[in-house]
Amino acid sequence: LQQRATENKILLVKISNSSVNYMDIDSLRDKTPYVSLETNPFKNAKVREAMMLAINIDDFTQTISDTISSNQLVAQSIFGYNPDITRPKYDLTKAKSLMQEAGYPDGFLLTVDYADVAGAKEIYSLFAKYLADINIKVTLNALPQEEFFPKIASKDSSAYFIGFVPDTQDTSEVLEGLIHTPTEIYGQYNLGYSNPTLDKVIETASQTLNQQERQQEIQGAMKEAMDDFAKLPLFQNYINYAFSSKIFWEPRLDGRLRPYEMAGKAE
């Protein structure tokens, strides 16, 4: 998604980057370390769905400027993005009902980790507020990046907020790294989600050479993961650029600045 305008020979470009911010949750272990229950509530898909429905994403994007809601774990610019996936609408009544059905009407306490970068506290405090509406009482644990990434890599977490962009600009990287059951090869960034049936689809797609067939496979896999609320996609950021109209340059979707990709326009 891109918007362009020109003012006084300055080109203004507003573009949504290809990083999707999401909430990762541990739905694999029977007991998860930072939840105030002896059992892991995230193993119940109804709890995961309730969390998604309780997030008032319209309120969020109106409160936090230059953000757009996400409906899956990849941006529109990524190969394998599934245009048929829609984000469930905010529905607090249904969310509370699902928590009741799952056996957690009174909710629980939850500590959520995040990297302490500029603006993060304001953003993640809003998500904590939304979850409080279904009695999931969140304590936000802000960590320096040098502590945050080793902590989540060691799976010393029950939930965390993070952004992810596939270096390959391909959905397969996301499915293999974030969704596939953790193994020596797969699931490097998967806190705790497992779906053996989905694993087989992801593995098959990685060996499919026909791009059209592979696209259909990974789009289907992403839809199945989102229908199961494997992770909770939240938002993307817009990036604002201003540069001389004499410069020929297309901003990169990954937000990186590479001067050698810029050139002066011929007079």
What order do the helices and strands come in, and which of them pair?
Layout: E1 2-7, E2 10-16, E3 20-25, H1 45-54, H2 57-63, E4 67-69, H3 92-102, E5 108-115, H4 120-132, E6 136-143, H5 145-153, E7 159-164, H6 171-179, H7 196-206, H8 211-227, E8 232-244, E9 247-248, E10 263-264
Any overview of this molecule?
This protein has 267 residues and is an alpha+beta fold. It has helices at 45-54, 57-63, 92-102, 120-132, 145-153, 171-179, 196-206, 211-227, and strands spanning 2-7, 10-16, 20-25, 67-69, 108-115, 136-143, 159-164, 232-244, 247-248, 263-264. Strands 1, 2, 3, 4, 7 and 8 form a 6-stranded antiparallel beta sheet that branches. α1 (45-54) runs antiparallel to α3 and α7 (196-206) packs antiparallel against α8 (211-227). It starts with a strand and ends with a strand. The mean pLDDT is 91.
Helix content: 25-40%
| Mass-distribution shape | globular
Q: Report Rg.
A: 20 Å
- Would you list the SSEs in sequence order as H and E? EEEHHEHEHEHEHHHEEE
Oligomer: single chain
Major beta sheet, specifics?
A: 6 strands, antiparallel
Output the number of helix runs: 8
Whole-Å distance between the termini? 30 Å
According to DSSP, the number of beta strands is 10
- State mean pLDDT (0 to 100 scale): 91
Strand content: 15-25%
Structural class: alpha+beta
Low-pLDDT stretches: none
Keywords:
single chain; 267 residues; alpha+beta; 6-stranded antiparallel β-sheet; two-stranded parallel ribbon; 10 strands; 33% helix; globular
